[in-house]
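Moderator note: this is an archived Q&A kept for reference. The question asked for a predicted structure of one protein chain; the sequence and the answer are reproduced below.
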Amino acid sequence: MMETQRLILYVALGLVLMLLWQSWIKYTLPPSAVPTTTSQGVESDSAVPDDGSVPVVPSSPDAPESTQVAPETPVDSDSAGQLIVVDTDLFRVDISTIGADIREVELKKYSVDVEHPDQPLVLMTPDQPDVFISETGLLGRDSSYPNHKTSWSIEGDRFKLGDGDQNLKVVFTYTSDDGVSYRKVYTFNRNSYLIDLEYQIQNSSNESWSGYQYAQFARTQVAQKGSMGFLGRLPSFKGGAIYTPEEKFQKIKFSNMTEEDLSQRAPDGWVSVLQHYFVGAWLPASEGPYEFYSSVSDRATNPLYRIGYKDLSPLTLQPGDSGTLDSRLYIGPKEQSRMKGAAEGLVLSVDYGWLTAIAAPLFWLISWIHKIVGNWGWSIIFLTILIKLAFFPLSAASYRSMAKMKNLQPRLKTLKERYGDDRQKFQQEMMKIYKVEKINPLGGCLPIVVQIPVFIALYWVLLESVELRQATWFWLKDLSVKDPFYILPVLMGISMLVQQKLNPAPMDDIQKKVMMALPIVFTVFFLFFPSGLVLYWVVNNVLSITQQWFITNKLQTKK
């Protein structure tokens, strides 16, 4: 009974490892290029209807005849307008004069990979196949309102945050045919991934002005090669997401956008595009209500996905009046300490899956340890020790049960020889011995049961937390990827063999062979797992071996 239950649990853990391994392989495979273009847009009247409803944001808003029209497909070409370069302590940003919108973002503090430490990671780009850009503008009663196809003017083409400056303002200007003047002001702040955007409107016309603001992302979906994995999802979600006070955090898959356009109204919230380790989010700065929406160009062939928000309350200016419309853009890593102060619920873009209730406290604890020790590898080791201490009473009871089981091995062997092939009688007599000796046959299974959810939760923490990206420890250059020399997986396999020597051997020969093969199978799985996760498992096994050896020897001495 005891051996069968323990074998079932090992097999269950092996299945979990296999699923995670297959998902990890799928995640680490290089993406395949998917050519993308956009359609000619949707014809839509952007005038304010008589009933006061909000104008529709078309895929390609109409622009005044006097403006230069941007091409439908976002590409890096001369026809996309002049590129204005903004250089800060964290960013290198390209802003096009067409739409005065951000086209490219380089993150100076994050490199592409450990092999290219001097090459900054490009988070936003107009280049195919992985297009990711922002599009913003105003909507109103006619086509004279500037949108993301309007040609803006600016003095200068390069802007740099000075050493002693705390912020940098980049100002674009546009004047419509009816005399309304617009200033589109980007404010970049030192040591911040938040970018403030402000529309300053001066109504110099003879009529009242009433307009709405919108902001959206345009993004292609780059397919991943391979179809392995029973989990049905990558470790990290890639797609859109919105947050509202009522519905909280909602992920919007690309497939959902293809099937049906999003249209959801809320008094407050934000809209974002998520990918592994990084996020772009539009955070409305003024009071709502808002409408969150999505649209797709060329749904059936080469889709370009748009997701964004628009104001539902217009700004109204009488002749001679001026006013502003504000929003904020968070574009950068999913650093939880930064996102908590940026917007309510933005930290939920760190996707820990269905075990968030365990993963979030684990991340908080490992971050707290990291503040003390200053290294993520050592932080994982001390986290493992704390987890082991937390479950010490439970594991101690389990190991005492297993030690008693091991002491009974000679009696059980004699019992098996006595009853031969009569398995039912053997099981009955064995359970009598367990009852007399006060042994719980399931006691030795508890450590494995406890470790499975913690193991999976830590797996997601190591995969999703950008803080551990490219973290080093001795020979390991990145704890979020596999051990390049396979040292830790081999140590893990050896530790499993040592543990088996301390456990009572199965009475059945087939079970004995299966148990001897498990360390080899697990070692193969762990060859491809994040090295930080394997480090946790090795340390956990070493601590378990120490605890189990001490308890076993104590009971044998007492006996």
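Archived answer notes: The radius of gyration is 30 Å.
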